[in-house]
Amino acid sequence: MKHIVIAGATSAISQAVSKQLISDDVCFHLVGRDMDKLEIVSNDLISRGCGKALCYSLDFNDFTEHQSLIEKIKIEADKIDILFVCYGIMHSQDECEENVNKALEQVTSNYTSAVSLLVLFTQVMYSQGEGTIAVVSSVAGDRGRKSNFIYGSAKGGLSTFLEGLRYKLYDAGINVLTVKPGFVDSPMTTDMKKGLLWASPELVAKYIVKAIKLRKSVIYTPHFWFFIMTIIKIIPVFIFRKLNI
Amino acid sequence: MQFVQNKKYQSWAHVYDPDIKNELLCTWSNSNLQLHDDAYLAYGQGRSYGDSCLNNDGTIINTSKLNHILFFDKDNGVLRCEAGVTLDDILSVIVPHGWFLPVTPGTRFVTIAGAVSNDVHGKNHHRVGSFGNHVLAFEILRSSGEPQICTPSENKELFSATIGGLGLTGLIRWVEIKLKKIVNSSIVSTERTFTSVNEFFELDDNYLEQNEYTVAWVDTTSTGTKLGRGVYFSGDHAKEHRVAYSESKLKKRRLNIPFNMPGYTLNSYVVRAFNQVYYNLHKNNSEQKLVHYEPFFYPLDNVLNWNRLYGKRGFFQHQCVVPVNDGKEVIKEILRLVSNKNMASFLSVLKRFGNIPSVGMLSFPREGYTLALDFPNKGKRTLDFLNDLDKLVKSVNGAVYPAKDARMSSEMFVKSFPGLNQFKKYIDPSFSSSFWRRVNPE
């Protein structure tokens, strides 16, 4: 049986990815904060034909619980074929600038807790000789922008961490995939105005699943974000500081 | 899977361009939504034609993310899923396990809660009744507080008010239905042409009882002795294990209408030509065929956004039901009126409903003939014409279908639904819709 761990299983992107990975020989290990929601997701996956789905409730910001989560998963899974990490919070930049606790919460949830989980999972997966670690970062981490640099810095840190981890695990046969979505129409962004650049979680998930299968290193989803971010990265500083992005 | 635009809460026929005051995204069926004093209405896929799924100046509860299947008993064919799950999604899950929807409308892109709220019917009405006849239970959240579970025996008044209740009794959170056993995904179908509406009535008398699914397409542009000629489709689920088509081929053939066509695209010449060609294609073609269920039940679903063919002014659907005996004359009279006034309906469907009583207080299906017509929106001319059709329907105590309606008078609505006064007792005071305010102008 294939074991797939989904950290942040109730997020819109995670749900769409899980649905596309369903197979009768797959066992999902669904990790999330809210047990009731996890059970809805697991029942959905089972009804749609996955072999098995187990739920683990976890507060990602409580690092002391991370080790015991891994122990619990180890009892059920002899090896982890795919670890998919997709959780986080997005407070508005203004909120974070006014309230340092919000800023720290944002960094903790999007970066520090992911580092903790990934270090611990790597310890377990290192000796497997195969497997995939796919983590959802963001295009927001590619360059610091005045409109969103606290969230962006956490995601930027995460992307850098993943790059290093990729080189580290290359010889161990484990692929590390960094996913950089642009605007995704999910509950996280309900209040934002939608437009041409927005993609559905299902579309983003389709590219993620494809990239996992092809063992890609970094993907922008949808692809056009690669071009947008390339342009944003090469804009000279004297122009960039005048832009309100 | 598509790129997302800012959500416009429109209905299928695009006659209205409503503004909403607020929207709530409901993502989990167990989350406790706080409903305040407001005019709420759940909105799924916006596949109702007129304004029964619209809530001008009110609050829309978007249920498109209530898309989880909660429970599927593969041995006994029982499925429980959240309100926003589409019939398309359900079919993709159940068909591989040998189950099918007990009743399906002509599109599979509606949500299950929409199917309940409009008590939708299908080509097998004469055998099994409408969708509500197969609902085992549902949970509804009312503004008064706690969610309630309704079944045919528990909370049965609210059960019966909610089925066909146009979303006015509260927010449906999940629905449980009994599925139908099938052997494979094929339908054995037969197409027979009839040269006049009289011949339809004869054909129907002969074949209705023999076949599980029957429906007729009518050429509304034919006149004189050919008045109401058309094609009679009948079908049954295949009884043996044999699949004669390629499943992969099926998926690819989809056309999308990317934007609104100019208003004159479906003018009467085009409609006339289409009807001619369609009739002639089916002539001399009455042998049995084995087809996949998709083209049999959902021919229009292969043209995504076909409503855009009518242009930005949209179109009106008119679907009525009239009693069997007095109704035949009315059906003929309607067809005569359509062809005399050169109104040319693009797709016209005629079917006989059976005598299985509907569960809902406000259910549309009842024994008789039902005729669905659609007309491009040409303003007053179309509206006057539709009022004339209503008069004919009213003269034999028939009914007009709210799910397709954008214009019926409140008098016609009252006449159509004898259970209306009983229904009103179960309306949630915090729920309303554009349709409801239109037909209940108080």
Describe this entry's structure for a reader.
The complex is a heterodimer of chains A (245) and B (442). Chain A is α/β, with parallel strands linked by helices and 245 residues long. Chain A is built from 9 helices and 7 strands; from the N terminus they run E-H-E-H-E-H-E-H-H-E-H-E-H-E-H-H. In chain A, strands 3-2-1-4-5-6-7 form a 7-stranded parallel β-sheet, with helices on both faces. In chain A, strand 1, helix 1 and strand 2 form a beta-alpha-beta unit. In chain A, helix 1 packs across helix 7 and helix 5 packs parallel to helix 6. The relative contact order of chain A is 0.13. Chain B is α+β, with helices and mostly antiparallel strands and 442 residues long. Chain B has a domain of 231 residues: FAD-linked oxidases, C-terminal domain (Vanillyl-alcohol Oxidase, Chain A, domain 3), CATH 3.40.462.10. Chain B contains 13 helices and 20 strands. Chain B has an 8-stranded antiparallel β-sheet, sandwiched between helices. In chain B, strands 4-5-9-7-8 form a 5-stranded antiparallel β-sheet. In chain B, strand 7 and strand 8 form a beta hairpin. Chain B starts with 21 loop residues before the first strand and ends with a helix. At the A-B interface, helix 2 and helix 7 of A face strand 4 and strand 5 of B.
